[in-house]
Amino acid sequence: MRSMITPTLALFLFAGSGFAQDIRYNFDQAADFTKYKTYKMVEMRNPQQVDDLLKKQISTALEQELAKKGLTKTEGNSADLFVGYQVAVHTEKQIDTFNDGWGGGPGWRGGWYGGGGLSMSQSTTSTLYVGEIAVDMYEPGKKQLVWRGVASKTIDTKAKPEKREKNLHKAFEKMLKHYPPKKK
């Protein structure tokens, strides 16, 4: 029984790792990130609109993480950075197939040469809500993008509000771990 628990547990851990958030970022190598102290939130053109509650959750989580990075929010146009975000939410079908490992064609099978046998497979489908959020930071004077972070698998429109907020905070924390970027 114990030998059966370990492979099963490993299977579920491996399957769960496919749902982890993916974080990517890029930045302008020539930008001096030490001079950025203030920011202003700006609306970006977003082909996919989200409801006002989700907008508020995104803004709150993002602003809290920016504050942890030492950036102060301002409403004036004299901000060092303009910060905006874009959201994309779509669904994908995922098919998981589990095989009992028995059967197959002729060949070496645990010390004997044989063939044939029955194999049982079970497939399940599920819908994944893949929500991506991109955060852009612009230098207003030059109107130039200086930093961009993207988190995939972050927004699930079907999740409960508490779970959605937790995912947003986690995504922004992971994303802004790379801000300010460390120069080599």
Topology:
Blueprint: H1 2-17, E1 22-27, E2 38-41, H2 52-68, E3 72-73, E4 81-99, E5 107-109, E6 112-114, E7 121-139, E8 144-152, H3 161-175
Parallel strand pairs: 2-3, 2-4
Antiparallel strand pairs: 1-8, 4-7, 5-6, 7-8
Helix pairs in contact: 2-3
Describe what this molecule looks like in 3D.
The structure is a single chain. The protein is α/β, with parallel strands linked by helices and 184 residues long. It has a domain at 21-90 and 130-178: Double Stranded RNA Binding Domain (2-Layer Sandwich). It contains three helices and eight strands, in the order H-E-E-H-E-E-E-E-E-E-H. The strands form two sheets. It has a six-stranded mixed sheet, with helices on one face. A hairpin with a 2-residue loop joins strand 5 and strand 6 (112-114). Helix 2 (52-68) packs parallel to helix 3. The longest helix is centred in the first third of the chain and has 17 residues, at 52-68.
Q: Biggest sheet, open or closed, and with what strands and sense?
A: 6 strands, mixed
Q: What is the C-alpha radius of gyration, as a whole number of Å?
A: 23 Å
> Distance N terminus to C terminus?
52 Å
Q: How do the strands of the widest beta sheet line up side by side?
A: 1-8-7-4-2-3
Number of strands: 8
* CATH class descriptor of the domain at 21-90 and 130-178: Alpha Beta
SS-based structural class?
Answer: alpha/beta
Strand content: 35-45%
> Which topology of the domain at 21-90 and 130-178 does CATH recognise?
Double Stranded RNA Binding Domain
CATH architecture of the domain at 21-90 and 130-178: 2-Layer Sandwich
Helix content range of the residues, please? 25-40%
Number of helices: 3
> What is the approximate shape?
globular
Overall pLDDT level: 77
Order of helices and strands: HEEHEEEEEEH
Low-confidence stretches: 1-18
